[in-house]
Amino acid sequence: MNRLDVKPRIRGAVDVLGLLERGRTLSAPVLRKAVERLAAPMDTIAAYHFGWIDAAGNPSDGDGGKALRSALALISAEAAGAPPEAGVTGAVAVELVHNFSLLHDDFMDGDEQRRHRDTVWKVHGPAQAILVGDALLALAGEVLLELGTVDATRATRRLNTATRKLIDGQAQDMSFEQRDRATVAECLEMEGNKTGALLACAISIGAVLGGADDATADALERYGYHLGLAFQAVDDLLGIWGTPEQTGKQAWSDLKQRKKSLPVCAALEAGGPAAERLAALLAADAAYAGAAGGAPDEVFGEAEFALRAALIEEAGGRAWTAAEARRQYDAALAALDEIHLPEEVREQLTALADFVVVRRR
Amino acid sequence: MNRLDVKPRIRGAVDVLGLLERGRTLSAPVLRKAVERLAAPMDTIAAYHFGWIDAAGNPSDGDGGKALRSALALISAEAAGAPPEAGVTGAVAVELVHNFSLLHDDFMDGDEQRRHRDTVWKVHGPAQAILVGDALLALAGEVLLELGTVDATRATRRLNTATRKLIDGQAQDMSFEQRDRATVAECLEMEGNKTGALLACAISIGAVLGGADDATADALERYGYHLGLAFQAVDDLLGIWGTPEQTGKQAWSDLKQRKKSLPVCAALEAGGPAAERLAALLAADAAYAGAAGGAPDEVFGEAEFALRAALIEEAGGRAWTAAEARRQYDAALAALDEIHLPEEVREQLTALADFVVVRRR
Fold first, then answer.
1. H-helix or E-strand spanning residue B113
2. Shortest Cα distance from A197 to chain B (angstroms)?
3. Which helix (DSSP H) or strand (DSSP E) does residue A118 occupy?
4. What is the ipTM for the molecules in this complex?
5. CA distance A278 to B31
6. Cα(B151)–Cα(B331) distance, rounded to whole angstroms?
7. For B150-174, what is the mean pLDDT?
8. B82: which of A11, A267, A290, B77 fits an S-S bond (Cβ 3.0–4.6 Å)?
9. Is it the case that residue A336 has pLDDT exceeding 50?
10. Residue numbers of A between 73 and 112 with CB closer than 8 Å to B
11. Residues of A in contact with B171 (CB under 8 A)
12. In sequence order, which residues have a C-beta less than 8 Å from that of residue A239 and are 6 or more positions away?
């Protein structure tokens, strides 16, 4: 990976892995309880998706993801001076929406692996992946409004907005895959919708449930939005140059899907000989894959993807994306300066930003 | 069709088609406005689904459905003594949820025709059908909570519950298709979830938005639930014995999908020679279709379906379902007797029940 040239600002004072662990530990029982409400076989299929059981139905302590959003929602409650527990229902609602989108996107994108395991549509078929995703989305609004407070309604409205942006982002992402190119601005808008909006919701929802005013929630959302874009920039680097061990996905996964991720858009926009050769290849790919009637990963070998990755790097797409991760990281931390926060919370959010941009590689 | 032996109780005093028209007319502009919020190409695809444009993108006054749920939501507001306009946002939210389920179910069920036109997944592909469905579901909660009132939150909670039941019902429906048989009780539970719950929500949501108490809303929900079961019983008859002109679908559509609809379940449960022959055929169908690697409609001819329909009728499944439609119709009207309602509203709801059970054939 490129070095991102970000010095972690918090050194050892904050236990980030402990914060992630707390997010999982406090939200997991409530999440499981919510998922148990689903009619069979959706409850079992959801349990497989979350890594609680394996494909044969046996209990598993499989990788259910980092639950970054849960960790953020609990810190969010503390940002409003409430105990972390005040953010648990918000954490669960956000995780439900996040996992709804994973279930649907994996099918739409044809992704066969997630968290080092076969995706739900591969194991249980597209219909169940769609239906269980639908159920998780519906459940999210249900558990949140069951709190029965005015703040729960405020939180649900923010979650609804984030969910719609998430869906807009997936629509944009898919439409870019059909095109030869997308601009960097289009890509950033798409990623802001697809990743930024729900992280923004995660880091504000606990505060809203804890009684924070809208100005505080909005500033926290800005932190989460930029954190999401930083996260996504790193993810886009991993999507091309990450190993299957790092990503839990196939090698070259973003290139295989013809994703117009940041490194690709930045390379094309940079111009120069490498960018021109890349543009010609991507245009030809589309025609070739269309004529061959298959996705690029079915008609090209590994060397073809390695060539594209090298051209993206030569055109500057890799370096630009690493620099963009840093810019977004800075913007996230700047948003925190706009509001009063308990010092411990500020340190935790800074450490989490460090983790997302610097250590998660 | 069988005669259902229900005498319409209201004769000409209520203009049912006018009520349906009012539902469409008042809700359509708000529905269109909401759908316009979707990012491209979802806005266009949704417009095709609703029949506002054709597949080529030209304006169309295609069949967007009866909008029975919209009509109910406006009457619902009047049931609480509010003007029909007080129910419009509820009508739009319920229509959005209804159409979310149509978009997803058509793909999951492999239905190629809806409202006499190709379904969205056929025209635009599965990914777009899923994504636009997701967007409509998210939009439903969004438009409702934007009202910003305590009653809007109450209405949203009822809509959430109905949505989850709808999804449970689809899960049950799909799981029954994999089985040789389902009991009548299982089928009624499935249909109550899949059809009853959202009609129950439609006829209570306007009242809730108009300030009705929970007891009134609950009684209206019971009316809607039984109306939904009556509606579904008629639909199940049409799904076997209806013509493509009546249904907008292929002939024998429910048999082709191996649906365990009421006539099938009732026939199997009745016993006797016809039921036994039917059971043997359905069990063999599953094995044969499985071995042939296709759905029954790909491996059987029309005569095979005609035979199954005749056996269902001979075993009494058709007559039982017609009688069940009548029982549910009676139960719907009985629910109205539990509460005080403006006399005009009572007459309208009675006329709508007549329409659903008697005239909609």
1. strand B113-114
2. 14
3. strand A117-118
4. 0.91
5. 44
6. 28
7. 97
8. B77
9. yes
10. 100, 104, 107-108
11. 38-42, 131, 135
12. A247, A249, A253, A254, A255, A259, A261
Asked whether the predicted pLDDT for residue A4 surpasses 50, the reply is: yes
User: How many angstroms away from the CA of A39 is the closest CA of chain B?
Assistant: 6
The single-letter DSSP state of residue B192 is I
List CB contacts of B12: < 8 A, sequence separation 6 or more.
Answer: none
- pLDDT band for A78, please (50, 70, 90 cuts): very high
Residue A227 structure tokens: 């954190």
pLDDT tens per residue across span A15-67: 999 999 999 999 999 999 999 999 999 999 999 999 999 999 999 987 667 88
Side-chain half-sphere exposure of A145, counting CA atoms within 13 A: 26
pLDDT for the residue numbered A290: 61
Between CA A316 and CA A325, with CA A321 as vertex, the angle to 5 degrees is 150
CA gap B82, A103 in Å, rounded: 42
Any alpha helices (H) in B38-181, and if so which ranges? 42-49, 68-79, 88-109, 120-124, 126-145, 150-177
Q: Spell out which residues of chain B touch residue A161, defining contact as CB-CB under 8 Å.
A: 142
Work out the angle at residue B329's Cα, subtended by the Cα atoms of residues B326 and B331, and round it to the nearest 5 degrees. 110
Helix B262-270, helix B214-241: angle, nearest 10 = 80
- Measured over the CA atoms of residue B283, residue B287, residue B292 and residue B295, the dihedral's sign is positive
CA dist A286 and A302 (Å) reads: 17
Average pLDDT, chain B: 91
Residue with tokens 């989305």: A137
- Rounded to an integer, what is the distance from CA B184 to the centroid of its chain? 19
Please give the domain boundaries of chain B with CATH numbers for all domains: 16-359 (1.10.600.10)
Residues contacting residue B312 through CB under 8 Å, at least 6 positions apart: B240, B263, B264, B267, B274, B278, B318
> Hey, is B145 helix, strand or coil?
helix
For B228-269, the pLDDT digits (tens) are 999 999 999 999 999 888 877 778 888 988 888 999 999 999
- In one-letter notation, the amino acid at residue A164 is R
Per-residue pLDDT averaged across B20-43, rounded?
96
Contact A42 B141 (CB under 8 A): no
